[in-house]
Amino acid sequence: MPRLKWGMIGGGEGSQIGPAHRLGSGLDGLFEFTAGALDHRPDAGREYGRRIGLPPDRAYGDWHEMLEGESKRADKVDLVTVATPNATHFEITKGFLQAGFNVLCEKPMTMTVEEGEEIVRLAQETGNICAVNYGYSGYSLVRHMRAMVARGDLGKIRLVKAEFAHGHHADAADADNPRVRWRYDPKQAGVSAQFADCGIHALHMASFVTGQEVESLSADCVSCISSRELEDDAMVNFRMSDGAVGRLWTSSIAIGRQHGLTLQVFGEKGGLRWTQEQPNQLYFMPLNERLQVIERGEANLSPEADRATRVTIGHAEGMPLAFANIYTDLAEAIRARKERRSVDPAANLYPKAEDGLRSMAAVFAVAKSGKEEGVWVDARPPMFR
Amino acid sequence: MPRLKWGMIGGGEGSQIGPAHRLGSGLDGLFEFTAGALDHRPDAGREYGRRIGLPPDRAYGDWHEMLEGESKRADKVDLVTVATPNATHFEITKGFLQAGFNVLCEKPMTMTVEEGEEIVRLAQETGNICAVNYGYSGYSLVRHMRAMVARGDLGKIRLVKAEFAHGHHADAADADNPRVRWRYDPKQAGVSAQFADCGIHALHMASFVTGQEVESLSADCVSCISSRELEDDAMVNFRMSDGAVGRLWTSSIAIGRQHGLTLQVFGEKGGLRWTQEQPNQLYFMPLNERLQVIERGEANLSPEADRATRVTIGHAEGMPLAFANIYTDLAEAIRARKERRSVDPAANLYPKAEDGLRSMAAVFAVAKSGKEEGVWVDARPPMFR
Amino acid sequence: MPRLKWGMIGGGEGSQIGPAHRLGSGLDGLFEFTAGALDHRPDAGREYGRRIGLPPDRAYGDWHEMLEGESKRADKVDLVTVATPNATHFEITKGFLQAGFNVLCEKPMTMTVEEGEEIVRLAQETGNICAVNYGYSGYSLVRHMRAMVARGDLGKIRLVKAEFAHGHHADAADADNPRVRWRYDPKQAGVSAQFADCGIHALHMASFVTGQEVESLSADCVSCISSRELEDDAMVNFRMSDGAVGRLWTSSIAIGRQHGLTLQVFGEKGGLRWTQEQPNQLYFMPLNERLQVIERGEANLSPEADRATRVTIGHAEGMPLAFANIYTDLAEAIRARKERRSVDPAANLYPKAEDGLRSMAAVFAVAKSGKEEGVWVDARPPMFR
Amino acid sequence: MPRLKWGMIGGGEGSQIGPAHRLGSGLDGLFEFTAGALDHRPDAGREYGRRIGLPPDRAYGDWHEMLEGESKRADKVDLVTVATPNATHFEITKGFLQAGFNVLCEKPMTMTVEEGEEIVRLAQETGNICAVNYGYSGYSLVRHMRAMVARGDLGKIRLVKAEFAHGHHADAADADNPRVRWRYDPKQAGVSAQFADCGIHALHMASFVTGQEVESLSADCVSCISSRELEDDAMVNFRMSDGAVGRLWTSSIAIGRQHGLTLQVFGEKGGLRWTQEQPNQLYFMPLNERLQVIERGEANLSPEADRATRVTIGHAEGMPLAFANIYTDLAEAIRARKERRSVDPAANLYPKAEDGLRSMAAVFAVAKSGKEEGVWVDARPPMFR
């Protein structure tokens, strides 16, 4: 099977996300890095692209140039990853979708709900793939949680408890550091800081694992460092489409935690607990039995988990492989389209434009509720109400 | 030093709490079990009392008889523990306080805020000791957390994250078992179930450790098992008297958890985490340093911690010793009164009538907010506003 | 049931072991502290005994006086605990056994194998109870491990892996501190330091849990701090009476460990792991299934575990309760003798003189093998060969 | 910088190690998969090679053909990985080294000590790079342990405690499964089974981290499943070149463990503990201070650790990245040779032919000692004595 052609916008020299995408897309040899517009400075981007192996004519100066160049080619890229600053995601994603490309967009997909609805409609109309990079959903045992819930191992889901709390922005003396400050400045970050940055991953995970959408929510947002306009800590209660209750805590001032993405799911017949910092174990307690440790890679897991594991049991797998699983799914989706066949359902798990839209609606709902003393608000995008 | 004389109401044959109090009071040899009215069936109580070592004339048939009998004696009991069904705590505590006895009352101290205020006034007027048994505050490292906060190791406290979530009432098929059902029946349990039963311990802990009182709160209460009138899961956001933000989750349907009492405290200069199930370690991260493991019994802890530890480092200490520390404090308080001296401040940590009252106000506030879509309500007892 | 009468030799003011024994014996109200010779200075011992509640005529000046005094009484003590310096254990235990008393001796029971054999014979001849305080065997889940092995849950036992490794004697600058130094001085400590002090507990545990005796062993003993004559670290391989292989590591220079008593048992059908520092969980993996967490206090454990648990599931139990379980067993054994009935088998688990003797034989075997490059030596006492 | 050219022998369709090497070599884009002889069936190997992207003329039928083909080319491969069955490692490695290629050989490098010495001499004489794949040494925090020891954070090393114990061969009913059986058959596996397969990794780690070589050892080898000729469990005591004492346990019958590679290092000034199953945390206790948690990716770690980390703190990194670090080191070594400059010392950490030789000497020493009741034997290869 020839490798698919892959391009990236953003992710230039010194960025963290660029190498992560190159690693994720290249890991299984499914994609070949073929084109890019890697830097907002055209010359620097072209030069860096060539240096890391792009053909000179496909190391573009900006995304417009890349869109034009790739559109003309017979061997155009099969997938474009958008890893630029947040405010530009919408227009780039829109541009490429309209021109017939498949897109994987970094989160947030857009800056408003309206833009999100536009992307969803565009993806639906064009039939092009539009994915959003909620990469934590790529972990093998996260996918197994979803499969367990789907096949009824937990019975009806009663409650989801999600956390994404770290302490990396807890230092008041560092709050004016530009690297940190922009996140809490509404002019640059939008209506939400910590929830939009981290909490939204946990919320996506809650939906991903339960198969239920968030319908309404109530938020308590605070700025523990008082110079911040946007929240550095939030507690969100929510209700899901099949009746599950949700509770989500996110923080950037929780000194002593390094990451803290954790999901607990409680149903009528059992409970689950998983944490990103030790992602190779999943704790499962069937009702009235004992807590069990499910190991990544053990025999007889779900097809979804098996497909997303590469290393034998007992060896640690980490975030880069989770990330790569998003690309593996996309390769399957792209190939299925090319081959006019249906997608392997165990691979159809990559987050989609609809997820990006729902996340944006949740961000605005949290911001609104947070300002209005925790009033319950509809968290669904208008087009899904 | 002769042993103090101790009596108990309730805690009869087959109860769990009776042996726990006998163990706790007797552990250090500070109290002698001298009198009791142990059962609501007078003969059974008298017989059981004698069987477990009470002098025949001090094995009483009911609390009125005991109050009368002890009041007449020169060698009357120094402390009365009230371990009867919840609805009777108020009148018994009131009766003994009025008659000049010191009382340790099981939680909840009362069933209403008004009753709670009456007990507080009575304790203040009589000068008698009135304690409430929030026993988890007796753990050595919990006391060390309090000392660390008090001496400024964490700087100003920003956020407290408390949990008390277990799964022991998650079985819908067992929900009508009378042993479980009464807790969720407002006729027997009052206005709150899981919060009043477990959550309140976590809330007390938040105040105990930070030295701040809860001022206002917003609650999301749900009954995951639909036949229940009262909540089996609640999330409470709160604000404290010196500006700390609070988040508290309590549940009885969290399958996979056995107990789940956990406290995290985040300040400007550091973070702490402690969990009851492994109470001999305390996790401390000073800002911009590494996570450290504080061991119970290590050198150079606070006097409060040292006083509350009995076993050398590396050996497990458990709940019975925490419980006993409440009695140890009470022995010191009683002796200080007898000797007309001030109490050792490191021992003046037992929960007091004021704590019992504040808890009751919080229970009613949670119930009110829970019914009114999470509206923020004043959580202070009227007498403390 | 009236309380049994209990006396103690040693354990005077400022000792750690004295309060531990008083706590352990008093915890369940089964024993009453009635007599004692608590200090090697007669007057200090008498004074301290009275101060902590002994009747003046039973606060003795030394053990000879106590032996004489108690022997004459009709209401003599039912059990004598020997908590004096190691070198005196033999003669005191022997004296009291000969005079018809039951004895609980601190470990080591004797300083030589020959003395150990003499005690065993004396206990057999007199029929008096002679127990040795390997207190870790009192933990509820340790007893459950034993029950699981006995009923075949693990199949035939293949391997036992035991550790007792801490770092409290790792500081070379503190090695000459008399509090530490005597342990490594053969004149005071005998033929072994760390193995005799800590390793022997782990070895006892291996036998206790598997029901197999140690038959032969090979030891690698080293002094990591070179000024020490006796070992501060040892690795012992051994073979047991029903074919199990054993591996035991003990150390006092393992910086970063606080205690480290851990037992792993591997059989044909499953594996177990338990550690003293978190004694309320036991990890069990049945062959070809998943790792399970057995919780102290869960339903349907063995009678041996149930009898040794006092606190409900989810609450921490610690060392003092394990210690108390030895006394609870002894109370049952003493009563059974008085009542001329057989002992409850679930309570007949206290370590006996035979265990004390076997431990002593193992200590000498380790010392011999350690000096002779790890040669395999018979670890059984001559009388059991 | 153009990518280096990489080839592989073995690792054909369905193997585990093939994809792992392709992933590891490709992860950073430093190597391009250019040539291969992937299967012992020439046609299958050629076909598979082409299918996964090799140029048709460099998809060889066997290693002789590949050696001949590549030798003729100007653009020959820069590195050859040998991932064939163990018995063939020696001749292939020898062949390629002699012909001027750099080689990364899977472990074991050879089947005898003599062969190992021949490879070492050949690497020295030719100046070609000969690496051996002890991949666990590639973990970022393992390299940090080495750096900490080297810079004296632990003082002089007293003791190393290593383990590699799992339970995957514990099922007696599965012992005759050919997939398992060959490992315990001396005709196929040589003189040692579990030690040679797993223990040797732990022993390499002990040397890698301490910078000391193993000089002598004593082993206790047992076959817990009696039909096995070779050991499934071994305990090895050893002595190292700068005086450190070593203890190593390896097992394949330890039901309940999934992998179990763990290293503890104790020095005069501190202790370290790391375990492969949770490789992103390293536990460090400085003498007389508290246990600290060092996080992979935290600020101010050693250059060796920084160079070997790719993902930000708090995110899990796993075995594939450790593996890739061996390739990253090799890329640097190869480039340094090409550019006639010295190698970055922080990258000169890949295991070398000398390590492969020392391992083989240790395997034979363990086998000899295991047969002779644990006699101490010299564990050094003759050429290093």
From TrEMBL, chains A, B, C, D:
Residues 142-273 form the GFO/IDH/MocA-like oxidoreductase domain. It comes from the Bacteria. GO terms for molecular function: nucleotide binding. Signal peptide: none annotated. Residues 5-134 form the Gfo/Idh/MocA-like oxidoreductase N-terminal domain. This is Gfo/Idh/MocA family oxidoreductase. It comes from Oricola cellulosilytica. The lineage of its organism: Bacteria, Pseudomonadati, Pseudomonadota, Alphaproteobacteria, Hyphomicrobiales.
